[in-house]
């Protein structure tokens, strides 16, 4: 996964509350286990007209060409609530979203963002309303938006994003510590390491 340092991008204003994972990617759009190809189904219920031809809905913000390459998504309270489907984060990431700013997130969705290289930022509605259609600079090192608005992130989550690590890669960085602990434990509790007698 690519490390996260700084993003400069327009922000897509999807200022709806309670956007759940079923709206982010409807179950009918999850026909594979792979992370690839999911962006096509991103917000499919809103992004396309309700017909078989998948015509873009001109009233939906993601279909506005002004936001074509935007990497920042603004939303209302409780973004990513609902089921724990990680496909929602995969679809957002494949679409190109690297930052989601909302007053609150579904807990599991928030952690899935961190694990998949998307920076979830908690901001008040008032701060979000100050973010306009202009480009915004989000810097993770100093935890700032446009060098004006600060945001909080847990140090471990920040490290994962900056270093571009998922859970497995993070654990692999501690292989020598794990082996050292196992060797010490083996000396203290040798019975725990006895294999079954045949």
Please give a handful of descriptors for the protein shown.
four-stranded antiparallel β-sheet, globular, Aconitase, domain 4, 8 strands, alpha/beta, 31% helix, 198 residues, 8 helices, four-stranded parallel β-sheet
Structure description:
This protein has one domain: Aconitase, domain 4 (Alpha-Beta Barrel), CATH 3.20.19.10. The radius of gyration is 20 Å and the shape is globular. It contains eight helices and eight strands. With 198 residues, it is of the alpha/beta class. Strand 6 (136-139) and strand 7 (144-145) form a beta hairpin. The strands form two sheets. A four-stranded antiparallel beta sheet has the order 1-6-7-8, with no helix packed on it. The mean pLDDT is 93. The N and C termini lie far apart (44 Å).
Beta-strand segment tally: 8
Give a short account of the largest sheet. 4 strands, antiparallel
CA-based gyration radius:
20 Å
Distance between the termini: 44 Å
Task: Work out the count of structural domains.
Answer: 1
The CATH architecture is: Alpha-Beta Barrel
State the secondary-structure class. alpha/beta
Q: What are the SSEs and their pairings?
A:
Layout: E1 6-9, E2 11-14, H1 21-24, H2 44-47, E3 72-75, H3 87-95, E4 99-102, H4 107-115, E5 119-122, H5 125-130, E6 136-139, E7 144-145, E8 149-150, H6 155-163, H7 167-172, H8 175-188
